Amino acid sequence: MHTHPLSSFSYCPRCGQKVLDEAGRLLTVRRARDPEKGTLDLPGGFVDPEETVDDAVRRELREETGLEATEVRLLFSIPNVYPYSGVDVYTADLFYLTRVKSFDGATAMDDAGELVIVDPADLRPEAFGLRSIRAGIERIVADPKLIG
Questions:
Q1: Helix, strand or coil for residue 10?
Q2: What confidence score (pLDDT) does residue 11 get?
Q3: Fewest 10 Å CB contacts: which of 5, 11, 23, 146?
Q4: Does residue 79 have a cis peptide bond before it, meaning omega lies within 30 degrees of 0?
Q5: In angstroms, rounded to a whole number, what is the distance separating the alpha carbons of residues 139 and 146?
Q6: Burial 83-115 (b: 16+ CB within 10 A, else e)
Q7: Please, are residues 120 and 140 in contact by the beta-carbon 8 Å criterion?
């Protein structure tokens, strides 16, 4: 029997979010680190022990962009294999719709090397390096009502 690399952890290893402002624009980030350094991504990250996923979504948005969420809503999940510290970790990536009033004052911080604001109609899945994030963007492109 195989032991899961995170079997001693009691939290979800990754969450991703789509951040929209009141104008309907999508905030993406350019990855500052590997894996897939330099490609587009969505703000997100690990859920801390004893933290709810909704709280983690709000915290990760604040840590990576300085923005405060006005709405947080689960959209869907996608299975993933995420390389972390030399170990392939099997995850269920959670995709949230997160709204903010404005992108004014947003700053790339933490894992985000750059903030890239995109009109949802201009989304190109191939610009996203991580497999599950690309699959999530493909899902949004196929059904824009998910974020409407």
A1: coil
A2: 47
A3: 23
A4: no
A5: 9
A6: eeeeeebebebbbbbbbbeebeebebebbbbeb
A7: yes
Q: Give the whole-angstrom CA distance, residue 84 versus residue 143.
A: 31
Q: pLDDT tens digits for 75-118? A: 999 998 887 788 898 889 999 999 999 999 999 998 889 999 99
Distance CA 118, CA 55 (A): 25
Nearest to 102 by CA among 29, 21, 28, 42: 21
Q: What are the tokens at 66?
A: 């300085």
Task: Retrieve residue 34's tokens.
Answer: 């590997």
- Count, residues in the chain: 148
Q: Determine the 3-state secondary structure of 82 from DSSP.
A: strand
Q: 113, 108, 106, 109: which is closest to 38 by C-alpha?
A: 113
CB of 47 within 8 A of CB of 56?
Answer: yes
Question: Which amino acid would we find at residue 56?
Answer: A
Residue ranges of the alpha helices (H) in 47-88?
53-65
Quick: pLDDT tens for 4-45.
455 544 444 556 677 899 999 999 999 998 889 999 999 998
